[in-house]
Amino acid sequence: MGLDFSIVPDYIDILIAGTLWTIALTILSIIFSVAGGVLFAILQLNRHAAVRRPVSFIAWLFMGTPLLLQLFLIYFGLVQIGLDLNAFVAGVIALSLHFAVYNSDIIKSAIVAVDKGQYEAARSLGLSQLQAMRKAIVPQAIANVTPALGNMMIALLKESSLVSVIGVMELTLSAQRAISDSFRPFEFYITAAAIYYVLNLGLEHGVRIAERRSARYR
Amino acid sequence: MDFALMGRVWVYFADAALVTVQISALAILLGLILGAVAALGSLSVKAYLRWPSRAYVSVFRGTPALIQLFLLYFGGPQVGIHLDPFEAGVIGLGVNIGAYMCESIRGAIISVDKGQVEAGRCLGMGHVQVMRKVILPQAARMMVRPLGVNSIALIKGSAIVSTISVLELSYTAHRYISSTYKPFEMFILASIFYLIIVSIFSYGVGKIDKRVSLEN
Fold first, then answer.
1. Residue A141's pLDDT band (boundaries 50, 70, 90)?
2. Most buried residue among A86, A111, A160, A216 by CB atoms closer than 10 A?
3. Residue B124 region, left (φ>0) first, then alpha (ψ -120 to 50), else beta?
4. A1 vs B20: which has the higher pLDDT
């Protein structure tokens, strides 16, 4: 069977819908994974071991196991405890949690890496604790985390293809639908790969701009 | 928590863990070879060696591993590539991680001080000789850790081959989740095996790194 890319345009609607779902999935998960990362980082830097330990344990567990397995756990596990989530929500939760753990690691070390003298200087200039955090520590920490967080966002876009296994109609599953209709796996997987590649280039470009902007605060 | 069930099925997870180890080991090996070749290619002065290497890295890092795997396994037969799931898993994972390993190896090579190259050239060594006798021995020390990180990512990433029905850990976990409706138990069981594999592997990498690192 030869290759015939001329059939791809017949399925353009489903591919575009899939691409939009992938974009939505990625953007939502990026937002929640960064917010979750900040939360986990703060909890792991807490001075009470009773707060620190459980969060660190979950982080360790989630860093040592595959995303695919976590996806199964969340999708099937939440059903077991009576929460019948739709696949898209389960996908967002799994991706957000998985990457929040990695992000918290990055954020934690970035906060610790900001020179302690900076905080003391801000305090001695009369800034309150919160002000010192907001005006001195956070801007510098953001400059430190942007490149690494950017890499995580790029990884998240690619890993979002995994949620196709629990039935989220994103780009990968849309390509599979087109394949089961047309019996042309090669053409549609190449097309899906090309779309991911373009999305990836766009995201990389955005990340680089963010890096340049935040480097100013260093 | 149903410990009795976990006690009954854990042997199947142990068998599956061996498959995960095999597929990861082979894929890491393939990735190292491809990564080394591509890294040398991407640092070559000859454009016909440099561009294919760069394209390989860009394409395989720029698209999801899952899509690459599906393309190989499901799309392969259309272009005359017939592989069983295990072979497709090894090749798919290996080719994917090779692109990341290329970047790790390349990073280690270019972090060797430029003066070292110049000194080697001044002593009358050729380009290849400088690479072999001066740069690589120093770069090798620096690439252990990043390559270890790539390999650990691969061990965890190997879960995706369950989608092409390789009977490894995640496939087994998924099968038992669907047949027993005990997702937490099965997740924990599979997690234990992943954590054991990853811990042993990172212990080994740490040992090697300590041995070759100049910091001590």
1. confident
2. A160
3. left
4. B20
The CATH label, of 1.10.10.200, 1.10.3720.10, 1.10.10.60, 3.40.190.10, for the domain at B3-212 is 1.10.3720.10
Mutation site for B-interface testing, chosen from A15, A62, A165, A186 by largest number of B Cβ within 10 Å: A186
Answer whether A162's CB lies under 8 Å from A68's CB: yes
d(CA B65, nearest CA chain A) in Å: 8
How far, rounded to the nearest angstrom, does the alpha carbon of residue B65 sit from its chain's CA centroid?
12
pLDDT band for B215, please (50, 70, 90 cuts): low
The answer to whether the CB atoms of B160 and A162 lie below 8 A apart is: yes
Q: What residues of chain B lie within 8 A of the CB of A72, using their CB?
A: 170, 173-174, 177, 183, 187
Q: Please report, rounded to a whole number, the percentage of residues in chain B having pLDDT higher than 90.
A: 65
Nearest CB to B170; choose among A66, A179, A200 = A66
Closest CA to A91 of A172, A178, A191, A202: A172
Give me A41's structure tokens: 């980082």
Least CB–CB distance from A72: residue in B65, B177, B181: B177
Residue among B153, B73, B91 nearest A158 (CA): B153
For chain B, domain boundaries = 3-212
| B134 to chain A, closest Cα gap in Å | 31
Q: What is the pLDDT of residues B133-180, one digit of tens each?
A: 888 888 888 899 999 999 999 999 999 999 999 999 999 999 998 888
Q: Kindly list the residues of chain A whose beta carbon comes within 8 Å of any beta carbon in chain B.
A: 1, 3, 61, 64-70, 72-73, 76-77, 79-80, 158-162, 164-165, 172, 175-176, 179, 184-187, 189-190, 192-193, 196-197, 200-201
Output the average pLDDT for chain B.
Answer: 91
Closest CA to A156 of A212, A108, A213, A97: A97
Residue in B with minimal Cα distance to A74: B183
ipTM over 0.90 threshold: no
Cβ–Cβ of B78/A164 closer than 8 Å? no
Q: Delineate the domains of chain A, giving CATH numbers in brackets.
A: 5-215 (1.10.3720.10)
CB atoms within 10 A of CB B82: 9
